[in-house]
Amino acid sequence: MGELTVDVPKPMLSVCGTPIVEHILSGLTSAGIREIYIVIGWRGEAIRDYCGSGEKWGISISYGNQGVQNGTGKAAEVARQFAGDSDFLLTYGDILVPPEAYQQTIRRFSETTSSGLLTVTYGEDVTKGLSVLLDKDFYVEELIERPSDSQMKQLLAAGQLKPYGSVWRDAGIYIFRSSLFDFTCRLECSPRGEYELTDAVKKMLISGRRLMGLEIGNRWVDVRNPEVLASLQRPSSFVD
Question: β-strands 60-65, 35-40: how paired?
Fold first, then answer.
């Protein structure tokens, strides 16, 4: 986000006059979630000052600081004590979805005995993010980070790209059982120099844990750059 985040973290950037973080909190509370833990880092005091204890939304918010920005896997680790033995919903702070998406995610997870649920969205260019391969029952088969053209050809040749699933992109909203932390605590540094949440999820799959996929509709937005942020400022663009 460049200059836009010199003084504030990305979740505090405004969409139609409201910080991204408040849009997320509103969606979570509409789904019945009342206890929320926010992992803060860069300029995190701006989020803490704005959201406070959560009283103005009728919820309880607590905070943890990721002192070193060393990856999404370690960010999740900060919340380990808060989550305890409970199932929990995890979302990145720059993903916008309509409130009903959170409700749908929680409802679907409640119907399964899986170790977790990954939301996905269909994208034409799967080389720009995490691709999720799903079987015919919409369970996760494999995760591939930014697959190259050669990897895509290999997947096609191996029959892993199927008409009913093709390749879906990670949508950045999850529900996990506490067993996730058995894998985040053993993460190794990735080639990017970070401890990746997706690497923990891959280890879960390798260990035999079942993870369900759930499609998020076309009102999913990853606020990844200034152009996307600018496109959201029209009242009809995303926020009703």
Answer: parallel
**Beta carbons of 142 and 134 less than 8 angstroms apart:** no
Please say whether the beta carbons of 115 and 44 come within 8 A.
no
Q: Residue 236: is its pLDDT beyond 60?
A: no
| Residue written as token pair 């896997």 | 73
Cα–Cα distance for residue pair 129/125, rounded to 1 Å? 9
User: Of 172, 171, 223, 173, whose CA–CA distance to 19 is shortest?
Assistant: 223
Homologous superfamily (CATH) of 2-231 is Spore Coat Polysaccharide Biosynthesis Protein SpsA; Chain A (3.90.550.10)
The single-letter DSSP state of residue 6 is S
Q: Assess contact for 120 and 215: CB atoms under 8 A.
A: yes
Instruction: Report the alpha-carbon distance of residue 47 to residue 8 in Å, rounded.
Output: 8
Buried b (16+ CB within 10 A) or exposed e, 108-136: bbeeeebbbbbbbbebeebeebbbbbbee
pLDDT tens digits along 160-190: 654 444 568 899 999 999 999 999 999 999 8
